[in-house]
Design a protein that fits this description.
The structure holds two protein chains of two kinds. Chain A is of the alpha/beta class. Chain A is 24% helix and 20% strand. In chain B, helix 1 (17-30) runs parallel beside helix 2 (61-72). Classes of the chains: A alpha/beta, B alpha/beta.
């Protein structure tokens, strides 16, 4: 294997944003991988969809809102952003509530993408 | 023979992550495979603390990591941002941030997330143990 090799990384976020800082550290890792010119795809699944809700205010609990960076991931050259469609329904949310640049993905497509990836990180 | 890298994101004793990672590493080496790097990220950096004092009838997990690293000459990296935030410092960082003490075990090095990508590239498998 060579140092300049490009690996396909999938980051699956399935935790809610502020109950732990797992998503925050996962996102740091995704940004780092992209900075090193790796192929990065991000998928939000289950409670992870809460990361995408706009107008969160974490000031009251004294936590920095790391999810703000999600609206400008294209600057970091991360353009493959997906939400698993059934999760949206199960949480009683509407697709329209989520920022438009996230595309939806069915479970079957999710499995296919994971099969194709070189590395999968779950946060 | 395969080459593995192991990411540990769980603190010792809080969850089974650190202990399972340790057992997995021993199994990997006992089966004749190689470990390219151990990478301690998130709460996993607590595994590198020199100051843990577990009760005598419990496994000393940080000590067990040190022994494994020494005996098999494995590269062990602690993520710098995770470590500083959680108070795991080597002498240089303690001096830089004017802290009265350092507590990183001598078998571990502090470095950045780039080392994790390097580990991925040089390993057949990268396994993540997390809480």
């Amino acid at each position: 294997m060579k140092n300049n090799q490009k690996l396909r990384h999938i980051f699956v976020f399935h935790h809610s944003p502020f109950a732990s800082d797992l998503c925050s550290s996962g996102l740091d890792l995704a940004l780092t991988m992209s900075a090193y010119e790796q192929d990065v795809m991000i998928i939000f699944l289950g409670d992870g969809v809460f990361n995408l809700l706009p107008d969160k205010n974490s000031q009251g609990i004294g936590v920095k809102d790391f999810t703000r960076v999600l609206s400008s991931l294209d600057i970091y050259d991360i353009n493959e952003l997906y939400v698993e469609s059934q999760s949206i329904q199960l949480l009683g949310m509407q697709e329209q509530q989520l920022p438009f640049k996230f595309k939806t993905l069915h479970q079957k497509q999710l499995h296919e993408e994971i099969q194709k990836a070189d590395r999968v990180y779950c946060y | 023979m395969k080459t593995f890298s192991i990411i540990v994101s769980g603190a010792p004793y809080s969850t089974q992550a650190a202990s399972s990672a340790l057992n997995f590493c021993q199994a990997v080496l006992n089966s004749g495979h190689k470990i390219y790097r151990l990478f301690f990220y998130h709460d996993g950096v607590h595994n590198a603390s020199m100051l843990c004092v577990p009760p005598q009838d419990e496994v000393n997990i940080p000590e067990a990591w040190s022994t494994l690293i020494r005996e098999h000459d494995i590269d062990a990296v602690v993520c710098v941002s995770s470590a500083l935030k959680r108070g795991i410092l080597n002498e240089q960082e303690a001096e830089r941030y004017e802290k009265p003490a350092s507590n990183l075990r001598t078998e571990f090095n502090i470095s950045g997330l780039g080392q994790l990508l390097d580990a991925e590239i040089h390993s057949d498998r990268t396994i993540h143990f997390k809480p």
